[in-house]
Amino acid sequence: MNLKVLVPVALLLLAACTKPATWVGLAQGEVVVCERLAVRHDGAWSRLEGTREPKHEVWTSDGMPLDQLHFHTGIAEGESLVVVKDRPADKPIPRFRKDMQAQDVVELYESFATQDGSVFTLEKLAPARFADEDGFRFEFSRVRKRDEVRTRGVAYGAIHRGELFLVAFEAPRIHYFAKHLPRVEALAQSAHVREKG
Amino acid sequence: MERRTFIGTCGCCAVSALLGEGWAPPARIQRPDPKSDEGGLWALMDREEERLHQSPFLMRDAALVAYVQAITCRLAQGHCPNVRTYVVRSPYFNANMAPNGMMQVWTGLMLRAENEAQLAAVIGHEIGHYLARHSVESLRDAKSRSAFAHMVGIIPVAGTLAALGLVAGAFAYSREHERAADRMGLELMAAAGYPPLEASRVWANLLAELQAEKDWTGDASKRSVLFATHPPEKEREAKLEAAARAMGKEDLDPRTGALRQAIGPWRRAWLEDELKRRKFGESLALLGRLTRVDPQDGEASYFLGEAYRLRAAEGDTDRAQEAYQRAAALPGAPPEVHRALGSLHRKAGRLPEMREAYARYLAARPEAGDAEMIRSYLKKGE
Ligand SMILES: [Zn+2]
């Protein structure tokens, strides 16, 4: 019997039960995400507040398992996409480097999206304007580990003055992805960077 | 993990005594009385086996599974019909055997075996546990029993790797059990025509990987699933080697080509799985070994480059580039090696080299998902 395996499992279960964050509906119009990325939206979004993630925000329209919109704003050299605590030393976290190319950023996002053992496939990667920069757009699919739901995703990214800005939307490939895609495209097109300070 | 020394019952001693000259496997194991503790254990494992059938991690490639099952049968001889081999897609070095004859062989083990004999060494060891019914003895040990009951109670969802790992960890054997299984494994190997000496090489390679991880991170693979139940001791490797040398048969064919051919269609996917572990010390030790064993192996050389690129430590960019360049000139390297080189050239501002590398990638993969992105680099020439 391996008790060392049991302890982390128990801790995970505990952590999942104590969630202080709450969903708050957003009013239509312009919103500045994490003080760094201004976007215009149509109002049918809720934002998860109280996550203690200064550079990562999650929105949803129909509710979290059905669709999710992730913003990663102003990720600087050496930072990971999300705040990672108590990562064992022998499993280094993938970190952003400002000389990364589009392909490297996709890989960074993939490692974030497959932490739970999900299977991620890049479908398409192409240049695109985003956040006042010559950025990129990628499409992906994922088989979500937890419920084996097949999802589709679209993301826009750009590196602005050495910092990464990334918006990624993901929803089940049946119905929900197509339902929100035009809204997400419009939202991404409206994005502008707010300089620091 | 430290464990209380097993207080030997008659079964254990009897098995140990048998392991002298002329040891022969016992008679076929019959399904135990369902009302006995052993019967209860079988029922639990039958349930786990049902779940395993549904697992998305189960390899369903009939040729691959038949290859491994054939090795099992060669080793298990008359017990073959009672042992069911499952190949599980997981990059960790592991194999395990449940008392009801459900045996799992993980792809991380198959990726690491240098030849069929090394794979047979691990399978033979697991068959040894089965023939001696070690798990039942462990169950009768009070401490293991309560821990086991607790473990079985908390596996809620089947098919997750974590659950498979927990099941694998359920049968923690005593040192005596391990030694007995090692000896039985050697006997079964020799009887099946494999050189027994390969058994100690499995452990030598694994110890080298763990040492490399420790050198890199200062932390050995404490959470390795296999090592929770099978402590990798230098002493154990030495004992295996001495026992194998005493048995001779060093000139038997380890069947290197057979294993390579069997895993060939899957090796690239398994190497990708391996890098996703982000255990770069271990991966670099493994890939270093693969490229040394066969310097013409372009696939291994490409993944060596990938491991350096992803580790991204001081000097790793140069090491990655060297490995990619070697791979690009060898057979077996995937076309992605040219994309990897193109990316390094682009970052370093070597534009003619970038163009040449990306052009080779696009020629081989014109429909690649990222082709449009790459074409934009070529157009801008930036
Ligand atoms: Zn063992």
Structure, explained:
The complex is a heterodimer of chains A (about 200) and B (about 375). Chain A has helices at about 5-15, 100-115, 175-190; strands spanning about 20-25, 30-35, 35-40, 45-50, 55-60, 70-75, 120-130, 135-145, 150-160, 165-170, 190-195. Chain A is α+β, with helices and mostly antiparallel strands and about 200 residues long. Chain A has an 8-stranded antiparallel sheet, with helices on both faces. In chain A, strand 2 and strand 3 form a beta hairpin. The radius of gyration of chain A is 17 Å and the shape is globular. By secondary structure, chain B is mainly α. Chain B folds into 2 domains: about 5-245, no CATH class; about 265-380, Tetratricopeptide repeat domain (Serine Threonine Protein Phosphatase 5, Tetratricopeptide repeat, Alpha Horseshoe). In chain B, a hairpin with a 4-residue loop joins strand 2 and strand 3. The interface of A and B includes residues 102, 124 and 127 of A. The complex binds zinc ion. The site of zinc ion has 6 residues of chain B, from helix 5 and helix 9.
